[in-house]
Task: inverse folding
C-alpha cells in the first residue's frame, strides 16, 4: 500500500512523498523501513526509522519522512493495520479427523480444523473457522466470518452471530451455578436456558459464559470481553460493552450499552449497570445495586470522587487522631486553669 | 407428566385439574402452555401462561390454572425439573477416534466421545460420559454416572467418585505451586500427591484442582464449585460446600462441611473455615486464620456486622473531621476569651 | 538410593546407617518404610515411620533412624525428590492421530501425543513432550525438555525456551485486549506481536499469556506462574519472578527480576514492580505506579507497615469518635460554666 493510498483510505492530509510502499504497522520506536507508525501527541517523532507516520492535526515537527495528518491517529493506525495485517487466511477445508454430524449445515468456505466436532443440526455460517479442537454441540447456530480458536467449546443450543471471535479455551453455554438446598444435599436448579452472542463480539481466552437457567444469557452486539472473565447465567450484556480480564458478573445482572468494566471487578447478582457507567478495576458491586452513569470504584462501589475523598480521609486518619489528642490536652489545660481560679 | 402425577411426586396439595399434561418447566413470566412455573411468595401470579403453578402454602390467589401447594416451591420446582429435563442421554459408544489404553477398564453403558484419551489402568464406571476431547491419565479412577464435559483433563492417579460433573476445561490434578529457592533459581517442591473428588461433586468450567504436594487434595461429597475457581494443593474441602466463581483457596487450607464461599474470595494457606461459615464475595482470609461460623466479609475478613459498622464509620469520616475542626474553633475562642480576661 | 548416596549427593552429614534403601519422599506424618522425610525446625521428629530424615544443622533429637544434617532441609528434600520422582518418562512417539506439518522440525526423542497439532515451520526441541490435545501454531519455536500438558495452545509465532512446563489449558499468544473507539463500534488495535517465554519457566493450568500488540510479551528465565493467571500484551516479566494464582498483570507492565506477587493481585497497565518487591494477595497496583523493593499490600498498594497502621487506625475509629464526643461534652460544660460567670 502506497502512502498516497493510505492517505486516501483515511481521508487524511498527506505531507511528503506519496509513492512510498508501506508493508506493515509498527510501534514508533521499533519501526523500520516499510513500516507505518503513529504518534498521539504533536511532540517530537525524533529518530524513528518508520517510512511513514500518522500524526495529529496539530503536528508541526520538521521530519524528513512522509506523514498523514488526522484527527485520531490511533484509530487511523488501527484501520490501516486491519488492511495491512488481515486475519489469517485459512484455506477452506473440512479436516479428515473432524467429526461433523450428518445433519449439520456448513456454509461456504468454512474452515473445519483437526479434531473438531460439529453436533446434530448445528449450523456454521460462511467463511467461519473452527480451529483445531474446537467443539460445537447440537443445535448450535454460528454465523458467518467467525473464528473459534483452538479448544473452544460451545454447548448445545447456543447461538453465535456473525464476525464473532472466541479465543482459545472459551466455554459458552456450560450450566449456570444454581442449587436449592434440600436438607443434606444441594439439588441442581434447572440450567436449561441458552446463550445468545450477537454480532462482532470478541471473547478472550478461557472465559466462560454460562447458559441461562430458564431463559437466556445474552452478549450484545460489538461487546468485547477479555480473558478469564466469568459471565453467569441470565446475565444481559448490552452493545459495545468492554469488560477487562478476570471480571465476574453474577446471575441475572444487566450491563447496559457502552459500559466499561475494569479487570477483576465483581458484580453481584440482579445488579444493573447503566449505560456509560465506568467501573474501575477490582471494584465490587453489591447484588441488586443500580450503578448510574459516571466513574465508580471501590467495594462497595462509590463514585470515583467520593472514593478518592474517602481514601484521602483514611490516609489522613493519623493526623486527625493527633489533632484530637492535642485538643484533649488543651481542653485539660483550660479545665485545670479554670479549677485553679 | 400430568398435574396429578406431579402432585403425588411432590406430596403436594393439588388445587384444580389433575389431568393437564406438563412437558417442561419455565419461568413464570415466559411460561407457555405445557409448562409448570413456580412462585416463592404468595403474591399475584397474574398473567402467566403456564399450565400449572407450584406455590407456597399460604398462596391464596384466585387463579384459573391448577396449582400445587408446597412448603418450598423452588425446591419442588427443581425436583420436577430433574424429571422433566433429565441430563442428556448419550447412547453408549466408544468413538473410533478414542485412544483407550488396553489396560483401562470401562464400565457398562459408558460414552467415550471423539478425541478422548483413557490412560493405562484407568477405570471408568458404568454410565459415565467422557465427552469429546476429555482426557484422563494413567491410574485414574472415575465412578459411575459421571459427566466429564469437553476438554476436561484429569491427571494421572486422581480419583473421582460417582455422579460427579466436571464442566468443560476443568483441570484436575495438575502440579501444585511450590518451590524452594536455591540461590539463583526456584527448585520445584515435589508435587507427587493426588486428588480425590467424592460423590455428587460438580465443578464449573475452567476451574482447577491441583494435586497434593505429598498428600492429597480432597473435595467432599456433594460440594458444588463454580467456574474459574482455583483449589491449591492439599486443600481439604468438606461436604456440601458451595464455592462461587473465581474464588481461590490456597494450599493446605481446610473448608469444613456446609461452608458457603462467595465469588472472587481469596483464602490464604493453612487457614480453616469452620462449618456453616459464610464468606462474602471478594473477601480475603489471611493465611492460618480460623473463620468461625457466621457471616464474614472484607479483607481481612471480619464478622459482617463489624464490617458494616466499620464501613459506616469510614463513610462518616468527613463529618467527624468537621466536628473536630469545630471543636478546635470553639476551643480557640474559649482560650482567647480566657486570655482577654 | 541408599542413605549414604543421598548424603553424598546433598553433601550432608549422615548420622546412622548408610545402607538403608530409600525409594520415595513423603511427609513426616504419613511416611512409611522406604521414605525420606524432612523437618525444618530442630524439634521432635517423634513417631515418624520414615526410614530417613533430612534435618537442620542444629537437630539434636535422639532418634533411631538415620538422618542427614543440612543447612536447608526443605531444599535438600526437593533436590532428593527430583531424583527419586523424576518427571514421567514418556517413550518417544509421534502418535498416529497427530497432525504435524511437513515443514515442522521435530527434535530427537520427542513425545507427540494423540490429537496434537504442530504448525508450519514450527520447531520442537529434543525430548520435548506435547501431550494429548496440545496444539502449536505456525512458526512456533519450542526448546528442548519442555512439557506441554494436555490441551495447551501456543499461537503462531511464539517462542518457548528449554525446560518450560505449560500446564493443561494454558493459552500462549492469544490476541491482547485493545480497541480504539470509532463512534458506534470498537476497532481492534493490531495484536500482531509475539510472546517469548525463556528457559525454565513453569505456567499453571488455564493461565493466559497474550501476545504483544506490536512488540513482544516476555516471561523471563526461571519465572514461575500459578493457575488462572492473566498476563496481558507487552508485559515484561523478569527472571525468577513468582506469581500466585488468579493474579492479573495489565498491558505493558514490567515486573523486574525476583519479584514475588501473591494471588488475586491486580496490576494496572504501564506499572513497574522493581526487583525484590513483594506484593500481598488481592492487592491492587494503579496504572503507571512504580512499586519499590519491599513488602506491599492493599488497594492501592502501600508499604505493608503503613497498610497495617492504617488498618489499625480504621479499626480504632469508633474509639476516636467516642473521644470526640467526650471532648464536645467537656467543651460544652466549659462554655456553660463560662457563660454562667
Result:
Amino acid at each position: 500500500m502506497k502512502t498516497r493510498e493510505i492517505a486516501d483510505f483515511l481521508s487524511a492530509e498527506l505531507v511528503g512523498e506519496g509513492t512510498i510502499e508501506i508493508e506493515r504497522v509498527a510501534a514508533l520506536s521499533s519501526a523500520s523501513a516499510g513500516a507505518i507508525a503513529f504518534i498521539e501527541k504533536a511532540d517530537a517523532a525524533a529518530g524513528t526509522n518508520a517510512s511513514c507516520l500518522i500524526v495529529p492535526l496539530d503536528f508541526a515537527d520538521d521530519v524528513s519522512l512522509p506523514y498523514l495528518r488526522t484527527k485520531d491517529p490511533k484509530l487511523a493506525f488501527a484501520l490501516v493495520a486491519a488492511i495491512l495485517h488481515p486475519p489469517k487466511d485459512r484455506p477452506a477445508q473440512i479436516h479428515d479427523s473432524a467429526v461433523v454430524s450428518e445433519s449439520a449445515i456448513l456454509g461456504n468456505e468454512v474452515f473445519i480444523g483437526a479434531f473438531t466436532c460439529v453436533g446434530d443440526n448445528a449450523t456454521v455460517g460462511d467463511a467461519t473457522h473452527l480451529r483445531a479442537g474446537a467443539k460445537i454441540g447440537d443445535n448450535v447456530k454460528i454465523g458467518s466470518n467467525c473464528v473459534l480458536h483452538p479448544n473452544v467449546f460451545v454447548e448445545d443450543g447456543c447461538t453465535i452471530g456473525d464476525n464473532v471471535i472466541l479465543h482459545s479455551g472459551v466455554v459458552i453455554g456450560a450450566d449456570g451455578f444454581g442449587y436449592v438446598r434440600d436438607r443434606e444435599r444441594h439439588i441442581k436448579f434447572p440450567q436449561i436456558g441458552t446463550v445468545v452472542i450477537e454480532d462482532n463480539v470478541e471473547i478472550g481466552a478461557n472465559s466462560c459464559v454460562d447458559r441461562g437457567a430458564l431463559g437466556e444469557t445474552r452478549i450484545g452486539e460489538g461487546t468485547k470481553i477479555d480473558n478469564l472473565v466469568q459471565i453467569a447465567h441470565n446475565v444481559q450484556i448490552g452493545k459495545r460493552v468492554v469488560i477487562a480480564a478476570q471480571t465476574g458478573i453474577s446471575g441475572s445482572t444487566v450491563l447496559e450499552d457502552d459500559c466499561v468494566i475494569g479487570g477483576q471487578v465483581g458484580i453481584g447478582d440482579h445488579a444493573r449497570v447503566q449505560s456509560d457507567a465506568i467501573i474501575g478495576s477490582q471494584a465490587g458491586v453489591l447484588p441488586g445495586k443500580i450503578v448510574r452513569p459516571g466513574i465508580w470504584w471501590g467495594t462497595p462501589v462509590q463514585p470515583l470522587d467520593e472514593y478518592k475523598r474517602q481514601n484521602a480521609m483514611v490516609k489522613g486518619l493519623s493526623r486527625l487522631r493527633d489533632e484530637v489528642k492535642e485538643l484533649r490536652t488543651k481542653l485539660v489545660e483550660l479545665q485545670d486553669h479554670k479549677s485553679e481560679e
Summary: Helices of chain B lie at 3-10, 73-84, 304-315, 317-340. Chain B has four helices and 39 strands. Residues 308-341 of chain B form one domain. Residues 167 and 205 of chain B are 5 Å apart (CA to CA).
